[in-house]
């Protein structure tokens, strides 16, 4: 077997591992935002809770940011 092919294959695997780790970290960031918002929404004091319009706006932004991230990640894997 050609060692150059093995080296290229190994480098490709290392790149995939880095991308997967980066994806996991970023996915966790999106999830943390959602959980934090859930905690604020379940506050004992109604005055400390987010309004539904703010919840929708924040969820829409998280979804948009995540979609952009997912698209970039898929392109990087190709």
Q: Classify the beta-strand content into a percent band.
A: under 5%
> Structural class, please?
mainly alpha
Report the uncertain regions.
none
Q: Quickly count the helices.
A: 2
Structural shape: elongated
Number of strands: 0
Instruction: Give the overall pLDDT as a whole number.
Output: 78
Biggest sheet: strands, sense, closure?
A: none
The H-and-E topology, N to C, reads as HH
Helix content: over 70%
Question: What is the CA-atom radius of gyration, in angstroms?
Answer: 19 Å
How far the N terminus sits from the C terminus, by CA atoms, comes to 25 Å
Q: Can you characterise this structure?
A:
The two termini are 25 Å apart. The mean pLDDT is 78. The chain is mainly alpha-helical and 78 residues long. The protein has two helices and no strands.
